[in-house]
Specification:
UDP-N-acetylmuramoyl-L-alanine:D-glutamate ligase, two-stranded antiparallel ribbon, ten-stranded mixed β-sheet, alpha/beta
């Protein structure tokens, strides 16, 4: 098992400009969830993105831009997916899902992006729920899944595994089989600092002991090798970031000094089954890219509040846009996000935190990972 190393952030050149730090696009929002894409955009800006755009339905776009005036907008029309895809292709990283809803229009956007946009994608919230609703035969024919980042919390993870592993289905293998006749396209993400190789293993991790529960009452999912998938109940119920910040050296897969449930095998299973980078959120968030793993030490229970997941999506997307590989961006994003939450909790208290409190401290948290002079 290899540990993903927590990267450092390069210092900016004195003659740099916003074009040097990535163009990112946040796609999401709906009538009742205007703030979600705006919070993600704010977080992306506070995480160093040179330029951030919000693509959301025309009716709510002015309100989203009022929340995040540093971003620019793109009016999303369900009937003009070609225009959206062309617009997405002009960005270094794209996030989709925050506040997007599960409408037929949202579903078309998510599936078209996965199938036709070759650049890095961060999938969160409703984008994950849309994926979970797919049958194996409906899985998009994407050429490269290694530049897709999935960011599920425990409930979303269980639904995703139910879709991916249903009756032994392996989406990564299915996607490769569907694309054998298609020409290979280059990766859309920049190699960046600490970029890693693609995850392509399909071997199943060893089973877990202790109290367990299956994902489905009617049909226990299994891996492609027929091993029943069981989930540690305590791990599945842990949905909020927690624990005190500890030094970066404590970032590792496997044993945890805190005694928190180790969910590494679960994140690894989803990553190796899909070919994606997986961010399994919760107390001691796990980042997995195939057999490469890391467990995050930052974060606290005060972060168990609405909008915090949208903030994390913006942070990871901004870091990918700045040239980090997807796994490294995910790990650095989780670390900085949790550290900003720790700083906010120290200032405000153990409860009552707002997502915007975390956003305000992202630059200070990010600065702790700057390269030495």
């Amino acid at each position: 098992m290899e540990t993903i190393e927590l990267p450092r952030v390069p210092r900016r050149r004195v003659d740099s400009h916003k074009g040097d730090y990535g163009k990112v696009l946040i796609i999401g929002g709906s009538e009742t969830m205007i703030g979600a894409p705006a919070l993600a955009a704010l977080a992306a800006c506070r995480s160093g993105a040179g330029l951030c755009r919000i693509a959301t339905p025309k009716e709510i776009l002015p309100f989203a831009l009022t929340i995040c005036p540093s971003a620019t907008g793109f009016a999303l029309h369900a009937r003009d997916l070609k225009g959206l895809l062309e617009f997405a292709d002009r960005h270094d990283a794209v996030a989709v899902g925050p506040g997007f809803g599960n409408s037929a229009a949202s579903r078309r956007v998510v599936l078209e992006l996965l199938e036709r946009h070759s650049g890095p994608l961060v999938l969160d919230a409703d984008a994950l729920n849309i994926l979970s609703s797919l049958e194996a035969s409906e899985w998009p024919k994407r050429r490269n899944w290694s530049n897709v980042v999935l960011t599920p919390h425990a409930g979303e993870f269980m639904r995703l595994m139910g879709a991916v592993m249903k009756r032994g289905g392996d989406m990564a293998s299915a996607g490769r089989a569907q694309n054998q006749s298609l020409p290979e396209t280059p990766r859309g993400d920049s190699p960046g600092p600490g970029a890693s190789s693609d995850a392509a293993a399909s071997e199943s991790p060893p089973g877990r002991g202790g109290k367990t529960r299956s994902l489905s009452e009617d049909d226990v999912p299994s891996t492609a090798d027929g091993i029943p998938l069981e989930i540690d109940a305590e791990s599945a119920e842990s949905t909020n970031s927690g624990g005190d910040a500890t030094p970066p050296d404590d970032l590792r897969a496997g044993s945890l000094a805190t005694g928190a449930p180790d969910r590494s095998a679960l994140a690894e299973l989803l990553s190796r089954s899909t070919g994606c980078v997986v961010v399994l959120k919760g107390h001691r968030t796990v980042v997995a890219e195939g057999k490469r793993l890391a467990v995050n030490p930052t974060g606290n229970p005060a972060m168990a509040t609405a909008g915090v997941g949208d903030v994390l999506t913006g942070v990871i997307t901004a870091l990918i846009g700045q040239g980090f590989g997807c796994a490294e961006a995910a790990l650095l994003g989780v670390y900085v996000h949790g550290l900003a939450g720790d700083m906010a909790a120290e200032q405000i208290g153990p409860a009552g935190l707002l997502a915007t409190d975390i956003i305000a401290l992202l630059p200070r948290a990010r600065a702790t990972r700057l390269e030495a002079v």
